[in-house]
Amino acid sequence: MTEFSGATFDSREVRPGMLFVALKGEKADGHDYIPQALAKGAAGIVDGYEELDRVALEYRRSLRAKVIGVTGSAGKTTTKELLKVFLSRAGKVHATAGNFNNHIGLPITILDCPKDADFLVVEMGTNHPGEIAHLCDVAEPDGAVITNVGTAHIEFFGTQDEIAREKGTLLVRAKDFAVAASGNARIELLGELVAGSGKALEVVDPEQQWLVDALRGILPGAHNVSNAAVAYAAAERFGVTHEDAVAALRGFTLPGARWRRSEKDGVRYVDDTYNANPDSMIAALDAFAKESAARRIAILGDMFELGEASEGLHRKVFDHAASLGLDKVVAVGEMSSRCAADAKYPTAAALKSDLANVVAPGDAVLLKASHGMDLGSVLA
Predict the structure, then answer these.
(1) The whole model's pTM is what?
(2) Which of 116, 178, 214, 330 is buried most, with the most CB atoms less than 10 Å from its CB?
(3) What is the per-residue burial (b if ≥16 Cβ within 10 Å, else e) of 259-296?
């Protein structure tokens, strides 16, 4: 294999020694940019999706790093970041950037991994059956961590059991170990799947007081304690101690619009708009309900890819919000506006133009919706 230092499918990001991955997409064909990539010093060209998989697999097999896959319906990126920081106490770690977790992002992540890395943590996403199996074909994971089995992308799977089987593919395919939280929906089904592969599923207590204490003021909510618990269970296998994990969490922050706090015009915002599904919505609302403020206002937008269950799942989220005693619940989007709320807006832009009539100084405000709703733009 030609020596190289990372890979990219964006010719603007090519640096000398990198591989340029030429992919044909809906809007552009990477092959048109091969001359520019070579002129910028690309070490080689990877031609198309199949070649990308082949080259990434070959390189993965050359690495000494233990490869650990992370999947789940919600919390994948948070858990991946926690596992990354925990494992940093045991060696050099390379991990998925952001949520670069699909059939393009995962092989690029592998090709970006330094030769001297001890651990490679790869996030694995899916919204159609068979995608986790494909990612496992490329990553050949040594270990697996699953955050939860929810209803995200249920439009394409039909039932929660089928989502569990898709996510469970990672647990089955991992060579050495598989970890999940005991509070996980479909935990028995996951255990049966793993048992068939000759491994035992390590079932982790999602409510560990030492992690509650360590995460206080850093990441709120029981769902994040559960995320940290499964991440630590994987890291502990490589010698990471409780003391190591607590030390690693000091100063920990999440990338992107994930529970990002800010203040504007005397209003305290929690921007959690990177993405959303029914499970992450409910978890975020539970955490937000514990905020102290003159008023607590939840601004909730549409969730996508829920298929025929969409209206019912949106109502479930808004009913849960109503049960928490919040001072105001605001709906943004077509599906959310079908639910009971104190105010309704068709778009984020419409909300932004009226925001002064919705919030006031001293309020705490949660913003949560699928990324495509652009709900975070109200803070721009």
Answers:
(1) 0.83
(2) 178
(3) bbeeeeeebbbbbbbbbbbbbbbbbbbbbbbeeeeeeb
